[in-house]
């Protein structure tokens, strides 16, 4: 069952994920939310779950309209919550724990498992109930996210050990939340371990959940947001990127693949620290 594939644009040579079957998902708008508790039969077979007693707290299953093979969906709460911003700390921790577990389970030689969240319609979500997804692409595509994070010259080791740029927002456990030094769009943040570490461990899910919660609180609460994990399975420094959809992609971005960032990262960090301080008080 390979209904989708990466094709190369014959004009520019750039990769495209082509999945015509996904057009059907807009016609099949369900009457009841398939991700809510009680509607489990509306989703394909479960691939993983977290539960308390008999009740699930997070579950994963194949996407009905896959972009890649495999392509999984992860639902971090049985409640009809429409944003990851509104998950409880427990839901965030169990959702992230299952996400890391599924990511590890889908990994294989030569593949890159891309784990990401589209939070809100501007971020690409087509179902309202909060969810995450895992798609699988050739390793070379994922490795682009970590190209400058090898060994002694690792850019994230440098960034987390130097406070000069004023990008740091918060430190929690071994993790640092900081303004991305060069985000795709204004307001982008990253979460990364202070020490060079190749993979986020499932056992570290609770710390990561705390950091994700802080990062989301540090962003503009009215903005839809994409989150994705960058960890390529080699010795590179992992990070999680949090990108508020603060602008539309326009002619420069679409044609040249060059993003236009209309904010100073140091100002993003200052705003983020102020938002966290306001939450705390
Ligand atoms: Zn729902
Ligand atoms: Zn590093």
What is the H/E string?
EEEEEHEEHHEEEHEEHH
Helical segment count: 6
Kindly provide the name of the CATH class of the largest domain.
Alpha Beta
The CATH topology of the largest domain: HIT family, subunit A
Strand content: 15-25%
Structural class: alpha+beta
Instruction: Give the strand tally.
Output: 12
Unreliable parts: none
Structural domain tally:
2
Average pLDDT figure: 93
CATH superfamily of the largest domain, by name, is HIT-like
Shape: globular
Q: Helix amount, in percent?
A: 10-25%
What would a concise description of this structure say?
With 281 residues, this protein is an alpha+beta fold. It has helices at 89-106, 139-143, 155-161, 205-218, 251-256, 265-280, and strands at residues 5-8, 15-18, 48-52, 55-62, 71-75, 111-119, 132-138, 168-172, 175-179, 189-193, 225-230, 239-244. The longest helix is centred in the middle third of the chain and has 18 residues, at 89-106.
Description:
By secondary structure, the protein is an alpha+beta fold. The protein folds into 2 domains: 5-142, HIT-like (HIT family, subunit A, 2-Layer Sandwich); 154-222 and 248-280, HIT family, subunit A (2-Layer Sandwich), CATH 3.30.428.10. The chain has 6 helices and 12 strands. It has helices at residues 89-106, 139-143, 155-161, 205-218, 251-256, 265-280; strands at residues 5-8, 15-18, 48-52, 55-62, 71-75, 111-119, 132-138, 168-172, 175-179, 189-193, 225-230, 239-244. The strands form 2 sheets. The chain has a 10-stranded antiparallel β-sheet. A two-stranded antiparallel sheet has the order 1-2. Strand 4 (55-62) and strand 5 (71-75) form a beta hairpin. Helix 1 (89-106) packs across helix 4 and helix 4 (205-218) packs across helix 6 (265-280). The longest helix has 18 residues, at 89-106. The radius of gyration is 19 Å and the shape is globular. The relative contact order is 0.13. The mean pLDDT is 93. The structure holds zinc ion (ZN) (2 copies). Residues 149, 154, 156-157, 196, 237 line the site of one zinc ion.
């Amino acid at each position: 069952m390979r209904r989708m594939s990466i094709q190369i644009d014959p004009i520019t040579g750039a990769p495209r994920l082509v999945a015509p079957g996904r057009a059907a998902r807009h016609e099949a708008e369900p009457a009841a939310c398939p991700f809510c508790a009680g509607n489990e039969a509306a989703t394909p077979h479960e691939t993983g779950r977290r539960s308390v007693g008999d009740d699930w707290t997070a579950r994963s299953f194949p996407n009905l309209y896959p972009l890649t093979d495999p392509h999984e969906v992860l639902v971090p709460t049985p409640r009809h919550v429409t944003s990851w911003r509104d998950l409880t700390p427990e839901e965030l921790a169990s959702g992230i724990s299952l996400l890391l577990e599924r990511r590890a389970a889908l990994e294989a030689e030569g593949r890159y498992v891309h784990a990401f969240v589209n939070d809100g319609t501007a971020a690409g979500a087509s179902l309202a109930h909060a969810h995450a997804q895992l798609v699988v692409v050739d390793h070379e595509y994922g490795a682009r996210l970590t190209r400058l994070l090898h060994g002694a010259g690792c850019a994230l080791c440098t960034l987390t050990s130097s406070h000069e740029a004023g990008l740091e927002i918060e430190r929690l456990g071994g993790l640092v939340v900081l303004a991305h030094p060069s985000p795709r769009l204004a307001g982008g943040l990253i979460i990364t371990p202070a020490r060079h570490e190749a993979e986020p461990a499932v056992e570290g899910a609770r710390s990561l959940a705390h950091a994700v919660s802080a990062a989301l609180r540090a962003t503009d609460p009215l903005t839809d947001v994409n989150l994705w994990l960058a960890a390529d399975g080699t010795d590179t420094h992992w990070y999680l990127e949090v990108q508020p959809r603060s602008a539309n992609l326009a002619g420069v971005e679409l044609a040249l693949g060059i993003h236009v960032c209309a904010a100073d990262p140091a100002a993003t960090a200052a705003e983020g620290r102020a938002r966290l301080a306001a939450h705390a008080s």
